[in-house]
Amino acid sequence: MKKSINILILLAVAAFSLWCTGDLMRKNDQATILAGAYDLAHGRMQDSSAYYQYDKTYVLYWTCAAILKIFPDTVSPIVITNISLAILFWSALAAFVVRFRRTLEPLVLLCFLTAPAVLLNTLYVNSSVLSSAFLLLSAAFLLQEKQRGSWLAGIFFFLAVGSRADAILLLPLLLWLITPFPVAGKSLADFSRHLKLCAAGVLALGAGRILCPEAGASIDPIFNLKMVAGYAVFGFGAAGLLFALYSFRLIAPSAEKRGLEKLYGLAGLAAFLLPVLFFIPQLHAPRYFWRGCEAVLLLAVSGRFPAWNNRMLKTCFVLIALLPMFLGVRLPALTRPQLTVTQPTLFPSGDGFYPMGGTVPFLLKLRHAVEQPVDHNQMVWSAVHSAQFDFSPEKTIDVLYTPMYGYFMLEASLRGGFARCLPYEQLHDRPFYADSRSLMRADPKTPLNAQQQVLTLPALFVSPVSGGIGVLRFGVGDDQWGNQTRLLTRLFAGNEYRILNAGILPDETKQTVCFSALPFANSERDAATGLYYSSDSKSSVSDGIHCAEAALPRWMSLRAFGSGQ
Predict the structure, then answer these.
(1) How far is it, in rounded angstroms, from Cα 493 to Cα 539?
(2) Pairing of strands 532-534, 512-516
(3) Nearest 5°: CA angle at 384, between 484 and 481?
(4) Nearest partner of 60 among 92, 94, 91, 84, judged by Cα
């Protein structure tokens, strides 16, 4: 019965996820990885340091390159890599579920699959999805009483760490799970699995440093209690509550033990907490809870805990896991929460916008994100993909280094060239390209060098523009866009905004600014740019009058989240 329920849950979620998987471009890192894989597949790879975290994700680059080698260039590299990695992940998870059919509780699998940190990131190329596939396969061979399969466990763990280096954070938990207490009298041969697993992890990390010697540690501290709480509730989800429950179940027995047995229990607790605690001070996206979800899954199948018998507790967890799949929260203000099915409030992250619940409707939006963008990532990629670039005789273009540089790298690779992403100090004496979105904000977390100097340069759009987002060529054109952007960046206090198209009514929950080169009703003149503006949202968008709107509600402003601005 348990096996049948697990298979049904897995088939339902996997089928829906695969149906939603297509040509989604979710984030800049995805574009950079695809650029490197495309270059590798076509035998013209640049220096490895030019690619995003190549030393920590080289297996992902190689896997995507192998996929691109198999299929002809007429097939979209985005579509084929998105679908291929998704199939690899769901196949590995299916093997894991079948392997642990007797110990895996359906409730645990449900919590894992419905966690937005996992489910929303199965639709596109990223290091977590491939690393997780290899990690689950490693665990399937490792967590068994017999010694056979330990070499395969080590190989798959090597691939997991090579796909995403932070898989090494689960090494202590895996070692603890295969080390029952007591260990007195064990011979060295009994620890062969431990040695193979440790060697695989160390070799994978070492190989990354050999392949990319210039790379180093990539710890990027950023801590905000509001962000951690939001990402935990709407990212970790029911799996987060299960994580807390399992932590308590590890603590309780240890409190009653003494000596080595107590130390053994505390070691297990520390190993279990490590994948989550490591990321709390640098939580850039809900996806960083994926490792915590894996820790829950591994501990659940280990047989360390008795079976679930509390029906009331089971029912509560099922509801907590399923309701947010269809029901979301609309939060125009912190004091006005509203339940919704179709329009949950979106919040920003390093992986693009995430919804406050309503995971299923959001997955459907991601399925059509190319036609109807969910956030700036699809808008920037669409602009870059259709931009008119003037390549040099060496097939290169100069691009300002911004958080969106990966899209230029991918497009240049697809056109048989290279994008040289450089800071302004190396570009100020010649024309260069940049996406407008990166310059339409002043985020202290990702500041741009010499942003104000860039905005004084003449600029011309060389792509279609949507919401004010497009590709600019600097060094040609006029200063109209720069003046407009300097004004709006100041009026929006550095918060991201969009230029509204004619006929679109402003959202009352978001800050709105109307502006024009000519005076209009209730407007005032900006001395620095000579433009006229008004914060009256009732000002109509007409000939010569434009309207800009904050991308997020007022309560999500940089100031509200303690950025110092």
Answers:
(1) 21
(2) antiparallel
(3) 10
(4) 84
